[in-house]
Amino acid sequence: MRPQSTYRGRFAPSPSGYLHFGSLITALASFLDAKKNNGTWLVRLEDIDPPREKKGASAHILKTLAAFGLHWDENILYQSKQTDYYQHIIEQLFKEQYCYYCQCTRAQIKAIGGIYQGHCRHLNLDKNHSAIRVINQIQIDQYSDLIQGKIQCDKALAREDFIIRRKDGLFAYQLAVVADDIYQNISHVIRGCDLLEPTTRQLSFYQLLSDKAFRHVLWSAQDESHVSKHLQAPVFGHIPLAITEQGYKLSKQNKAPAIDIQKPQPALFAALQFLGQQPPIDLKHLNVDEIIQWAIAHWQLESVPKKQEIQLT
Ligand SMILES: [Zn+2]
Fold first, then answer.
1. Which of 81, 103, 126, 242 makes a 20 to 30 Å CA pair with 285?
2. What's the gap in Å between 154 CA and the centre of ligand 1?
3. How far out from the chain centre does Cα 114 lie?
4. How far is the CA of 117 from the centre of ligand 1 (A)?
């Protein structure tokens, strides 16, 4: 065990529903990788999209994690409490002329092939009824993934000026996730393969924010206890997605069933199998904490399969 590991990982669910088997796999993988590396594991609730939220889901998610022995190390971060911080970043982006208002509709962008071409960049549009796009100068289109190896993203997509605040005034995922990974000084992100491509945007955005013009905004917001004076993007590892027999991704949108928190052992065992950890059959009969202890001791990121596997339900 390495004392004082600088490893900081996190699990960041959105409270749009209860945890299902797919989200359990993600939570478990990020937890085990953090613990195996003697790191800190955090939970962040991405509750900045109220229309999509399910009442009581945040509390239920936390209850589920605890029932599965996935205990977090610091206070829960609620993105709904971070809005001043996000707003300060946007103000600074405007000050440095790194973003602009855009009034293009989804239909207009679709009509030109689906990739935004910077139409509103020099129009100086009014802020009313406008989204905010970042001027994407960095355009990172590849990176090395801990599980999937070298990832090459579509170049046109990587060049696109992406939205950081939506037309309806809500902060976009890309902004909030990068801002909070900086805020929580995250070093490792283990999450699902559905975010494989957006990672290049996040890496570009990281690099943009590493400009010294943003330091006062980022550093003053950070919790002093784990402040880091040089901005470094986390490393990423993307685990395969659990899909149904019919080939659909398990997701809240597809109404994937919530996992049973009264009897966590079978799902925990199945999740370890899915992650290629080959748990011995006797493990099924142990209690949750004993299973977790075994899983930490035997965790091997290299054993996680690259490809999607079918979850038989
Ligand atoms: Zn536009």
1. 242
2. 21
3. 24
4. 8
Selection from 107, 136, 106, 131 nearest residue 120 by Cα: 131
Residue 263's CB is within 10 A of a number of other CB atoms, namely 11
Residue 232 Cα to ligand 1 middle (Å): 31
DSSP at 167: T
Ligand 1 centroid, distance to 107 Cα (angstroms): 11
Q: Beta partners for 191? A: 238
2 pLDDT higher than 50 = no
Chain centroid to CA 91: how far? Answer: 24
Give the neighbor-by-neighbor strand order of the sheet with 131-134. 99-102, 131-134, 163-165
- Give pTM, 2 decimals: 0.91
Q: How far is the CA of 304 from the centre of ligand 1 (A)?
A: 41
Distance 95 CA to ligand 1 centre (A): 19
Residue 136, amino acid: N
Q: What is the 3-state secondary structure (H, E, C) of 36-81?
A: HCCCEEEEEECCCCHHHCCCCHHHHHHHHHHHCCCCCCCCCEEHHH
Q: Compute, in degrees rounded to 10, the torsion defined by CA atoms 226, 229, 232, 236.
A: 0
Of the pLDDT bands very low, low, confident and very high (cuts 50, 70, 90), residue 3 is very low
Q: How far apart are CA 126 and CA 282, in angstroms?
A: 64
For the stretch 92-137, pLDDT in tens is: 999 999 999 999 999 999 999 889 999 999 998 988 889 999 999 8
Report how far ligand 1's centroid is from the alpha carbon of 299 (Å).
47
Question: At 213, which helix (H) or strand (E)?
Answer: none
Instruction: State pLDDT tens for residues 73-91.
Output: 999 999 999 999 999 999 9
Dist. CA 140–CA 175, nearest whole Å: 16
- Give how far Cα 24 sits from Cα of 42, 242, 305, Å: 15, 10, 16
